[in-house]
Structure formats: structure tokens, C-alpha cells
Write a structure and sequence with these properties.
Layout lengths: L4 H11 L4 H8 L3 H8 L10 H8 L13 H16 L3 H14 L4 H11 L7 H16 L5 H20 L3 H8 L9 H8 L2 H28 L14 H14 L1 H7 L2 H4 L2 H16 L3 H18 L2 H4 L3 H10 L15 H8 L15 H11 L3
Helix pairs in contact: 2-3, 5-6, 5-7, 6-7, 7-8, 7-9, 8-9, 9-10, 11-12, 12-13, 13-14, 13-16, 16-17, 17-21, 20-21
Length: about 375
């Protein structure tokens, strides 16, 4: 190890106008440790050197000649993304933390880690870590390019949700008011800029997001204003389901003229709204209406279980399976599985429609959904 390493750390820190406390925060050590390095009372552990070199963006021999190349960072982010997509979240977080120890100023990787941590509950160390990561990104990510803008906006979005989840509504509001207005959003501006088929294709691609946000984030929040938190979709009432279905039908009115409603029915949330309505109506004893909504579920499954839509629906299915106590197969990852599989084995096979078993047409509907699981 180069005996001048402490001197070089102090020189780099001074040049970058970084305090010992700030460098220590990024490296996960105490400020006293950094002070001891610089005074050469002791040296950093060998495994700390890549992170120190990456932090200052150097590749010099005095810091072991470590080259924190862009390619290495991209490979790390790809591994985190692949692990996340495979549902191996613990491994994804471990890989992200390992990557940040080597590349402490990779703010894109920090956003990926924060995003994976936001699922934890109030008061958990993981949620606190998410909040700390987002605040650090907003403090230190100063890049003036598009990537920097996107990273900061993502960090703000995560921070609003994390602070709200942690009970800090005032802090969440203070962050939220600094974000762009709806009429300045990327989706609206891209749609405005496109023409012809490109405009149609893009509009169809973003409509599910808009419909879901309008229903669950706005109207459901208003309907549940006096409750501790809005009802999740698996706890919707019949009126909640009808309200959101009406939103989807209205928003897709022009698209329905072209494709007969195929694009709308390919969306998992649209299908699940009908399924939830059927469940609630069956619980209320309105079997005829329950069967009507269940028929629409089958129609959605028939049109929406193509290979192209299975993975797009994965996030919604896994969120519901994880949190809805009525879902019988809660530990199944559902990766590569169809909506039919989710509905049949997650709910119907568990007897959630026992009250409909003697109704005309019910068994045929169930058999059709079961058959679709094998398609």
C-alpha cells in the first residue's frame, strides 16, 4: 500500500470541498476514521480503497490503481435489475449495497436501492435507509443532464411515499410541492409531440397508468379521506369497483371504437376490478350480478393472457398476492404465470365463490378460467 495514501485522500477531499464527515457518511465509517487515515495513524482497510477511488473519480496507483469504469457500474445495475425482476429482492438489495460500496456516487444505483426499500413498514431500518438515500441523492446529485434530472425526480417521488409511509406528512408535502405540475409531465408532453400511429400507440401505453392513478390515487383517496389510509384494490367495495371501471371505460372510449375494448381488457387492473366486484357481490348475496362481473373477468383473461402481457402484469399480481389475505397462493411468485393462473389458483380454487356453486353457468365459467391456465 502506498504510504502516501492518507495524504492523497486529504488532497482529494480538499480539492472536492468534501468534509471528513461527508466522506465518512458515504463510506459507512466514522469521521474519526477518515481523520486517522489522513494523519496516517492508520490506513483504510483494503476493501475500502475501491470505494474511496470511485468516490473521487480517480484511477491512480496511490489508490490501488482501481478503475471504477462505467462498464462495471452498468453491469452492477443490470444485475440488480435482473434480481429484482426475478423477485429475488433480498439478493437485489445486497447487490445494490455492494455496488454502492464500490461506486458510492452512482446515484442511479442509489435510486434502485431506495426503490427496493420503500416496501418496508413504518419505523423499520429499511424505510429509514430509503429516506436517507433519497435525501442524500437530492443533496449531492448535481448533474445538469437529463439523467441527473430523472434521478432527482425519482428520488423525490420515492421520498414523498417513504415519508408518508413513515408518518411524516408535513415533510412529504414539502417535497411534493417542489415537483413538476401534471401539465408538465413527461407522458403528457410526449403524447403532445407525437402524431398519427405513434400518438395512438403511446396513448394506449400510458392510459393504464393514468386510469389507475386517477382511480386509486385520487378518487379512492377522496372517498377514504376520513380513514387512516386509502383502501387497496383487494379491499374495494362494489361502489369503489364500479367507480374505477367507469373511469377506465370513459378513458378508453375512443380506443374501444377501434379495437372493441381489447386494449382495455388486456390490463390486469381492469380485469381485477371486475373480479373484486364479483367477490363483493357474491358476499352480499347478489349472485346474478356477481356472475355478470365474473363473465367479464373471463373475457379479459381470454384477450389479455398473451405472452406479451404476462410480465407487464407481474408487479400488480405480486403486490396483491403478498398483501391480500384472501389470496390462497400468497407465496407463489407468479413470474411467467398468466392472469388466469392467478385468478384460479389464487382465489377460485380456494373457494372464494362457494356461494355461486349452484348458480347456472358458474361451473362453466370456472372450467373456462381453469382451462386458460394451461394455454
Amino acid at each position: 500500500m502506498n504510504i502516501k495514501i492518507g495524504e492523497n485522500i486529504r488532497k482529494l477531499r480538499t480539492e472536492h470541498q468534501v468534509t471528513q464527515e461527508k466522506l465518512a457518511e458515504y463510506l459507512g465509517v466514522s469521521a474519526q476514521a477518515v481523520s486517522r487515515w489522513e494523519s496516517e495513524t492508520c490506513y483504510p482497510d483494503l476493501e475500502m480503497l475501491p470505494g474511496i477511488a470511485s468516490y473521487f473519480g480517480v484511477t491512480i496507483d496511490s489508490l490501488m490503481g482501481y478503475d471504477a469504469s462505467q462498464q462495471e457500474q452498468e453491469q452492477t445495475m443490470m444485475r440488480v435489475s435482473e434480481l429484482t425482476a426475478a423477485g429475488r429482492l433480498d439478493e437485489a438489495r445486497a447487490e445494490a449495497r455492494r455496488g454502492l460500496s464500490l461506486f458510492p456516487k452512482n446515484f442511479g444505483l442509489a435510486v434502485m436501492l431506495a426503490s427496493s426499500l420503500i416496501v418496508f413498514d413504518k419505523g423499520s431500518p429499511e424505510l429509514d435507509e430509503c429516506i436517507a438515500l433519497c435525501r442524500r441523492i437530492l443533496r449531492d446529485c448535481l448533474a445538469g443532464d437529463v439523467a441527473g434530472d430523472m434521478i432527482r425526480l425519482s428520488a423525490k417521488n420515492l421520498l414523498v411515499f417513504a415519508l408518508t409511509k413513515n408518518g411524516d406528512h408535513k415533510g412529504a408535502y414539502e417535497v411534493a410541492v417542489t415537483m413538476p405540475l401534471f401539465n408538465q409531465s413527461r407522458e403528457l408532453n410526449i403524447q403532445t409531440a407525437l402524431t398519427g400511429k405513434d400518438k395512438w400507440d403511446y396513448s394506449i401505453s400510458v392510459l393504464p397508468l393514468i386510469c389507475t392513478m386517477l382511480g386509486s390515487s385520487f378518487l379512492n383517496a377522496m372517498a377514504c379521506a376520513d380513514e387512516e389510509k386509502p383502501r387497496p384494490i383487494w379491499n374495494y367495495t362494489v361502489d369503489d369497483c364500479r367507480r374505477d371501471i367507469a373511469i377506465w371505460d370513459a378513458m378508453y372510449a375512443e380506443a374501444d371504437k377501434r379495437d372493441g375494448g381489447a386494449a382495455k381488457r388486456r390490463c390486469f387492473i381492469y380485469m381485477f376490478l371486475h373480479f373484486t366486484a364479483a367477490r363483493r357481490l357474491a358476499e352480499l348475496g347478489d349472485n346474478a350480478s356477481a356472475l355478470k362481473y365474473l363473465k367479464e373477468v373471463l373475457r379479459c383473461i381470454s384477450e389479455g393472457d398473451s405472452t406479451a402481457t404476462v410480465e407487464a402484469n407481474l408487479g400488480g399480481r405480486e403486490e396483491i398476492a403478498k398483501n391480500d389475505p384472501a389470496c390462497a397462493k400468497r407465496d407463489d411468485g407468479y413470474k411467467g404465470k398468466s392472469n388466469a393462473y392467478f385468478i384460479y389458483y389464487g382465489y377460485i380454487a380456494g373457494g372464494c365463490f362457494a356461494s355461486l356453486e349452484q348458480e347456472d353457468g358458474y361451473q362453466q365459467l370456472v372450467e373456462a378460467i381453469k382451462k386458460a391456465t394451461q394455454a
